[in-house]
Amino acid sequence: MTSIRQATVDDLIYMQNTNLWCLPENYNMKYYYYHILSWPQLLYVAEDHKGKIVGYVLAKMEEDEPAEQHGHITSLSVLRTHRKCGLATSLMTSSHARMTETFDAEHTALHVRKSNHAAFHLYSQTLKYDINDIEKGYYADGEDAYDMRKYFKNRPDKFLSEEERAEKAAKMAAEAEAAEKAEAAEAAEAAEDGAVEEAAAT
Ligand SMILES: CC(C)(COP(=O)(O)OP(=O)(O)OC[C@H]1O[C@@H](n2cnc3c(N)ncnc32)[C@H](O)[C@@H]1OP(=O)(O)O)[C@@H](O)C(=O)NCCC(=O)NCCS
Predict the structure, then answer these.
(1) Is the pLDDT of residue 193 over 90?
(2) 159 CA to middle of ligand 1, Å?
(3) Which own/partner contact pairs does 77-82 have at CB distance under 8 Å and 24+ positions apart?
């Protein structure tokens, strides 16, 4: 059985190892330490029954836009032998949960190669990320990246489908109507109270 748990400093070397096996985007150990020392809540590993690290998610909170708290997935990978078992989904949802619980994140973001169909399916279909932009030549070999975002709250209108937009508009109209009715009822009550007081005074 494979389990998901928060990463510790001892896991970093194995996370780096997994990254080297799985992705061309690699980082020095200092960068892993920077993540775990700054946002230890956001790093998760998948560990098999023998204690071997078979997957990880390396994530952080973005520091350059403090106005809107948001997370960023720096790297995610699962060893080939352990893919398609739901591990990446669990790693990502664990990190997402801590982004909202601990840091009150509005959304989280990531980059993915346009050709990475497995990861794109995971992000867009399973985890419901939206494409925010396409970054031309983002990767060192010149490939474009999808800049993707998942909103935990207040998903902007530009990401909503026609139906979702119509649903949102209907909900807002219903809320406005309910508020108007409540206001009218309150005014009527106040007028009634005023009339009773006036009658009592005469
Ligand atoms: C992308 C990756 C992390 C997915 O890991 P995983 O543990 O196999 O993913 P999961 O089992 O949680 O699968 C999540 C979804 O993606 C789908 N999926 C996984 N691999 C897929 C593939 N090769 N092709 C199409 N869909 C795929 C699953 O079927 C599942 O879909 P569902 O929720 O609709 O059933 C893994 O393939 C990997 O490590 N790749 C190399 C590193 C990488 O590309 N990292 C991402 C960099 S941005």
Answers:
(1) no
(2) 23
(3) 77/18, 77/19, 77/21, 77/22, 77/23, 78/18, 78/22, 78/46, 78/54, 79/18, 79/21, 79/22, 79/54, 79/55, 80/21, 80/22, 81/54, 82/2, 82/46, 82/48, 82/54, 82/55
